[in-house]
Amino acid sequence: MCPVGHVSHLETLTPHGWGQIVASEKRGLLEWNDSTVDVMYSCADCGVCQSHCVTDQPLPDAIAAVRANLVQEGLAPSMVETLKKRLAKWGNPYEEKVPEPPEGNGEYALFVGDASVHLWDKTVPALLKVLKKIGIEPALIGKGCNSGYLPSSLGLHDMAKGFSQQILTELKETGATKLLVMSPGDYYTIHTLYPERLGVSLPEDVELIDVMSLLDEKHTSGELSFNRIEMGLPYAYVDPTHAVRTLDRLEAPRRLLNAVLPTPVIELFWRKERAHPAGDGVLQFVQPELSLLLTQARNEDATQAGAQGMITEDSATLYQLNQLSPSGLPVKGMYELLADRVA
Questions:
Q1: Hey, what domains does the chain have and what are their CATH numbers?
Q2: Opening angle at CA 241, ends 176 and 152, nearest 5
Q3: For 175-191, what is each residue's pLDDT tens digit?
Q4: How far apart are CA 124 and CA 302, in angstroms?
């Protein structure tokens, strides 16, 4: 099931290979060097292996812990140090621009993040338009700030914890009791990664809400409606990176798309419980060639399924898929589509 194994065709770059290297190093059968360290930084930390493990072994967490040890021993790739400095100075790995302060207050807060500011800035305005239709005008937190996922995945544990605490501090300043997140990656990070890797949790009186599931509920109840497109290209829905870590929300975007598109959304082979990442995440920085192969694989999957375009909601996934344009299929942001068709 490992997406990196699929695109690299190397058993070394699979859960079995990573596990063998860690076990061999602990037994004194090999040493950390440029080659073995490079292998340990070839995991996408996407969660597919754990989601298909019959005993639910947390291999991604283990690999992140190994990377943290490599960082402490000064053995991590030079790019990790570069990213550490960039994150420390700018709060994001993309642009030399510091995060904005939180904006607004009230019952709801929306975590914006860095990708939705620096990579695909159409997502948040579109979503706010849709949320306003159901009477929600959330405070905005984490504007241009990394959630902590990237440094955690790189092995920068203390930095990741610092980002998580910053997000929770901003949340507290808004007074919100409901925190909205726009993507599976952000939901997984705040819901699971914070407590399991970083020892940090949301306050007990704060509810974490996947905004796509919320929109689906409001549409089902009739509180939110959309105008269907009469004609258009056949689009495939691409499950965002980390979709396998948030199985409860798999159907929500599909129901919403089928309420808007003129024909049923096309499904990829690697979808839902077996969805592969699109190449965004840690690999785009430390293993860009593997990252590009993952992105190309999503495009090829959609093409083989007969799609003439792709739709997804996560800003980082949208940006990554769009890197193949114009040679690849056109890419559309789902929140933008919903905003255009909201009644």
A1: 3-86 (no CATH), 108-214 (3.40.50), 219-341 (3.40.50)
A2: 70
A3: 999 999 999 999 999 99
A4: 26
Report the distance separating Cα 339 and Cα 335, nearest Å: 6
| CA atoms of 158 and 156, how far apart (whole Å) | 6
In whole angstroms, what is the distance from residue 270 CA to residue 238 CA? 9
Burial class (CB in 10 A: 0-12, 13-18, 19+), 300: middle
Give the pair of three-digit tokens for residue 267. 């499904």
Whether 35 shows a pLDDT value over 80: the answer reads: yes
Distances (CA, A) of 83 to 89, 91, 92, 153, 318: 10, 10, 9, 12, 22
Residue 229 confidence (pLDDT): 94
Other Cβ atoms within 10 Å of 200 Cβ, number? 19
Q: Walk across the sheet containing 309-312 and list its strands.
A: 266-267, 235-237, 309-312, 331-333
| Cα–Cα distance, 169 to 332 (Å, whole number) | 33
Host H or E run for residue 4: helix 3-8
Q: Supply the Cα-derived Rg of the chain in whole angstroms.
A: 20
Question: Average pLDDT of 141-165?
Answer: 98
| Phi-psi map region of 330: left, alpha, beta (phi>0 left; psi -120 to 50 alpha) | beta
What is the rounded CA–CA span in Å between residue 292 and residue 319?
Answer: 12
**Predicted confidence band of residue 56 (pLDDT cuts 50, 70, 90):** confident
HSE on the CB side for 335, CA within 13 Å?
A: 25
What phi and psi values does residue 311 have, to the nearest 5 degrees?
Answer: -130, 135
208 exposed, middle or buried (CB, 10 Å; 0-12, 13-18, 19+)? middle
- What is the widest separation between alpha-carbon atoms in the chain? 64
